[in-house]
Amino acid sequence: MAATGTHRRAGMASASIAYAVSLLSLLLSPPLLAQSYPNPLNNTATVTAPTDVADPTPGNNSATDTNALALQAQLSVTKSLLSATPVAAGGAVQYRIQVSNAGPSVASAVAVVDSVSPLLANVSWTCQPGTGASACAQASGTGNAINVQVNVAVGDSVVLLVNGTAPTSTPATVPANSVSLVLPTGTTDPTPGDNSATTPAVPVQANALIANNDTFATAISSATGGNTPTVLANDTLNGAPVNGATLIIALQNAPAGFTINSAGVITVPYCSRLTRCPNGPSSTAR
Ligand SMILES: [Ca+2]
Ligand SMILES: [Ca+2]
């Protein structure tokens, strides 16, 4: 008898544990990647005759209704330009892509596809889910061909930031750029029209060069010739010191024989009686 009581208590204990587990499973969020309901959803009804009733055709006492469960998610995507337009040559371009899900189903393995213009260099991107209920297959990446899969929970969103560098020379225009969502097989979107978005073209503007006149404290005699200090020292390009190596530098209306190099240094030629002076006879070259 004592053993029977022990078995009963053990049975009650296992029932309590099972109840606690089922309660816990109700409290926990469902897993993001695996929707655990059976598909198709089947429901079977069975009739069983009493023991004193004989059923001559027992094979039709059970019937099953089958319903395929379909995922439907009203996904949408927006794309905006966060950086300035026009963009300065060689300047930064940044796009923001937001994928949202208005439900009713969780959207899993949705591909975010964006072919960034090849005019943009050094393209990199990050992917950030709005909450822990959503996810990105990759947190970041590089390259102009963006194709990253995301899971978007109902009422949540995922944001991608795309960074690139504008062309360094002009004229140039970064063309309009689109992003599209590709839904996995088995998921439908009742409003597919908002599953792509486009930003307008971004003109590339030449950098602002500010060139100031130069005066030299020491004259250079044509009897000796010589070099001036750089004429670029007091000039700026986009507010930064000029790097002559990135520019085309030329003298205008200069006497023959005068030259300028990429460092902005002007060379005054030596002039003697034996050489033809830039400004006439060699009277100054004694
Ligand atoms: Ca949609
Ligand atoms: Ca200057």
Please summarize what this structure is.
Helix content is 9%, strand content 40%. The protein is mainly beta.
Could you characterize the architecture of this molecule?
The protein is built from one helix and 22 strands. The protein has 286 residues and is mostly beta strands. It folds into two domains: 71-205, Immunoglobulin-like (Sandwich), CATH 2.60.40; 208-286, no CATH class. A six-stranded mixed β-sheet has the order 9-7-11-5-3-14, with no helix packed on it. Strands 8-10-6-13-15 form a five-stranded antiparallel β-sheet, with no helix packed on it. It has a three-stranded mixed β-sheet with strand order 4-16-12, with no helix packed on it. The longest helix is centred in the first third of the chain and has 26 residues, at 2-27. Bound molecules: calcium ion (2 copies). The site of one calcium ion has 7 residues, from loops.
CATH class of the largest domain: Mainly Beta
User: What is the helix/strand order?
Assistant: HEEEEEEEEEEEEEEEEEEEEEE
Radius of gyration, CA atoms, in whole angstroms: 38 Å
Sketch the major β-sheet.
Answer: 6 strands, mixed
The outline comes out as rod-shaped
| Average pLDDT score | 85
Distance between the termini: 135 Å
Record the strand order, biggest sheet: 9-7-11-5-3-14
Count, helices: 1
CATH topology of the largest domain: Immunoglobulin-like
- CATH architecture type of the largest domain: Sandwich
Number of domains: 2
Helix % is under 10%
Bound compounds, each kind once, are: calcium ion
Instruction: Supply the helix-strand structural class.
Output: mainly beta
Q: Unreliable stretches, pLDDT < 50, 5 or more residues?
A: 1-7, 20-34, 280-286
- Please state roughly what percent of the residues sit in beta strands, choosing from under 5%, 5-15%, 15-25%, 25-35%, 35-45% or over 45%: 35-45%
Give the strand tally.
22
